[in-house]
Every structure is written in structure tokens, then in C-alpha cells.
């Protein structure tokens, strides 16, 4: 009787591996279908056929989606290796032109997108007309190992050890209020007694939340927002006092800095990538560009 791996080798092809990898990354049929540019029913039928062919379950179905089994993860790993080698081959084939090209998917927060990246990005796109950008905003660090993004830009004191990257600088923050709002407050009133704008409960451990609780434990924010960009907008438009990065409100004429920059709120800004993709020309171009283009206010 032939061992099971012989059956596996005879039934599995590159398209099957691509489908397995897409479902592991997409976590559900819709996510996999979007990656493969097919409909969800096609993915469903393909996975059922592959599992029948090899006689093993590759994904456990649950309310959270499709979770890869040990064998499913192993096969997805082989698919990733093939994907990486294909990228290498393409890079070698087009290396003659020396002009980086292709799609570059960058994940970062709304705050970083608008205050740090977008102000400099037009210079990059002008220099590299063959690179296509996808900008994905989220507070969650994308899984770069599973190619949810090529590059992540994040504020962190401890970047993940399995990623490679460079520190672009230090994000500093201060306590701000709108000048029009301050004009309505009694002389000598301390900012801790004014209306505060803070991040909402989805980010309870954000450094700004921890600092406020440590220094003013009885202070209850009157207004809340989902990100620091919104907090900054609320400050500018006179809703009250808030902790905002200097990069968001740099020299804004309608606001006043009440205290800061606050050293306890300093945090590193990192440009991160997976080691397997760092060598690609378009990745190298973005790393080299952002290393010098981004200048954070001190």
C-alpha cells in the first residue's frame, strides 16, 4: 500500500495550493474569493474537492470562519514559499529596467495616514510611476506573514521580532485646546477642569488614556472619538481639551499647546515588513524614501 504522501503528491497542484493559501489568509469564503477573483461558491467547491482528493480535512468550519488544520497550515506554508520564489523570479526577469514596479499595500492608522504619510507620498509616486499603492487604514497590525499587507507603519515601543524594519522617528504628543474654546473659559482655570476629548473604549490601553488616568484619575472625558485624528479635529473645532500628536496639529493656527510635549507619551514610529519580501525593488524604494522623507516635529 502506498503511503499517504504519494496520494498527496499525485493529486495536489499549484492552483490547489493557491486556493488553500487564499482561504487561510482570507479566513472565510468571501475573503478567499476576493483574493482569487472568483465567487465564494467556487472556493467552497475547490476546497471540498481538494480535501476529498487527499483524504484529509484542511479547514475546520466555525462561527469565526475557516481555521486551517495542522496539515492546512503546512500546505499554506509551501504555497507561501512558492509565492516568494515567483516574486523573486519576476524581480530577476524585470531587473533589467531598474525601475521598481508592481502593487504595494501599506497598512497604517487613519491618524498616521493623514498626518505622516499623505503629506509626502506624492513625491514618491512622482518618482516611481510604475508602483501602484493600496492604503489600508486600521488600528490592527496586519499579518505581514500572510501578505495581508506588504508594509506596516505603526507607533510602538516593541515592534514584533519576526518583522524587519526601521525606526522613522519618535511620535511626540501634547495637550491642546482650541483658541476659541479657551476664550470662553474663566481666567486661571486649569485644563484638567475643562471639557476633555479622549479616545473611546475601543482603545482603553492607549498611552494617552493611561497618562490621563495616572495624572487625573477623577477626570471623566466629556467627548470621545475613535482615533487621534478625530480627537485633533474636535480640539480644532472648539469641543475642548485633548492629547494629540504634534504631527497632527503641527503649528495649527487655531490651537494652543497647554502642556508638552509630554515625554511619557513619546513612542517610536516604525516601518515594518516581512523578511521574505524586504528585498523587492518596490519595497526597497519605499523604505529608502520614507527613511528621509518623514520628519516628525520635536
UniProtKB/TrEMBL annotation:
The keyword DNA-binding applies. Signal peptide: none annotated. Keywords: DNA-binding, Transcription, Transcription regulation. GO terms for molecular function: DNA binding; DNA-binding transcription factor activity. Residues 12-69 form the HTH lysR-type domain. Pfam families: HTH_1, LysR_substrate. PROSITE patterns: HTH_LYSR. Belongs to the LysR transcriptional regulatory family. This is Transcriptional regulator, LysR family. It comes from Massilia yuzhufengensis.
